[in-house]
Design a protein that fits this description.
The structure is a single chain. By secondary structure, the protein is an alpha/beta fold. It has a single domain, classed as Alpha/Beta hydrolase fold, catalytic domain (Rossmann fold). Helix content is 36%, strand content 13%. It is built from eleven helices and eight strands. The strands form two sheets. Strands 2-1-3-4-7-8 form a six-stranded parallel beta sheet, with helices on both faces. Strands 5-6 form a two-stranded antiparallel sheet. The chain is globular and about 55 Å long. The chain starts with 7 loop residues before the first strand and ends with a helix.
């Protein structure tokens, strides 16, 4: 007999993030009586050997550019293997709801393709959902006026000569020394937070991300992911993945599985609103189960 039939929420973070970002939401879910587990994807979080130069003050940008990355060589399948190991342990005690934000949508899609039988539901919190291989190589038929791409380019650390590790390194912590950059990043990522909350988020973030996870294995399939109930939580104040882009992904996915469309909910929050306003996210997630 299973110990409990109440689902456990498993959280998958977005790019340059880690399990720590889910702490406020996990606390709110616990107050509502729900179990949860936040995953550190390979190369992320407390177990990853991140570049010491990123955390040392004052920062030495030359040293930071040359430091090896824990993300080097990490693939989408590494992410899937890691998350499946967590799910198989958790399903012994009840059903699992898999939740992802932002770039984490690629991993939760690939996991649902690989093992739909392990999932009670999959939830996208303004997360990337690809349902057509063409979106990997062709322009999207939607205006993407997000604010994050240009800002990310401004904080990208150039590779040291001859040391391209196939990883993008972003110096999030540089915003602490530049009030204008801090304000712009906050507006793009988490405008509904206090300055203190955004400083805490910046300090929690990892510098590196491997965008090689944006590959065909992340495209949802009707015979895998399409068998799992799925919810898309539209974040209407999101300036990193704007609502028009969220709606485009929803429409494309629904066309793939018209008999199992997205259940769509909406919250008037920023891209990382689950960090700044965790209670409303906890209440919504609890209502899904």
């Amino acid at each position: 007999m299973r110990a409990t039939m109440r689902p456990t929420f498993v959280f998958v973070h977005g790019g340059s993030s880690n399990a720590r970002a889910w702490g406020p939401l996990q606390n709110e879910l616990a107050l509502l009586g729900h179990r949860s587990h936040a995953v550190d994807l390979p190369g992320h979080g407390d177990a990853a050997d991140g570049p010491a130069a990123y955390y040392r003050l004052p920062q030495d940008i030359t040293e930071l550019a040359a430091a090896p990355s824990p993300m080097r060589g990490v693939t989408l399948q590494d992410n899937v293997h890691h998350v499946l190991g967590v799910l198989r342990r958790l399903t012994a005690t009840g059903p699992v709801v898999l939740v992802g934000n932002s770039l984490g949508g690629l991993t939760i899609s690939a996991v649902a393709n690989a093992a739909p039988e392990l999932l009670h539901r999959v939830v996208y919190l303004s997360a990337v959902c690809l349902s057509d291989p063409a979106v990997l190589t062709e322009p999207w038929d939607v205006v993407d006026d997000n604010l994050l791409d240009a800002l990310a380019a401004r904080i990208t650390v150039p590779h040291a000569d001859g040391q391209d590790q196939g990883v993008v390194r972003l110096n999030w912590r540089s915003a602490h020394a530049d009030p204008h950059l801090f304000a712009e990043l906050k507006y793009a990522v988490m405008a509904d937070s206090t300055d203190h909350q955004f400083r805490v988020l910046l300090d929690s973030m990892d510098p590196d991300e491997n965008y090689a996870v944006l590959e065909p294995g992340a495209v949802v399939r009707a015979d895998g992911w399409g068998r799992v109930p799925h919810t898309f939580v539209r974040l209407t104040e999101d300036r990193s993945i704007p609502p028009a882009v969220q709606d485009y992904m929803i429409r494309k996915a629904d066309a793939l599985t018209p008999d199992n469309p997205f259940e769509v909910c909406a919250l008037a929050t920023s891209h990382v609103g689950y960090f700044s306003r965790p209670q409303v996210f906890a209440e919504l997630l609890a209502s899904l189960v």
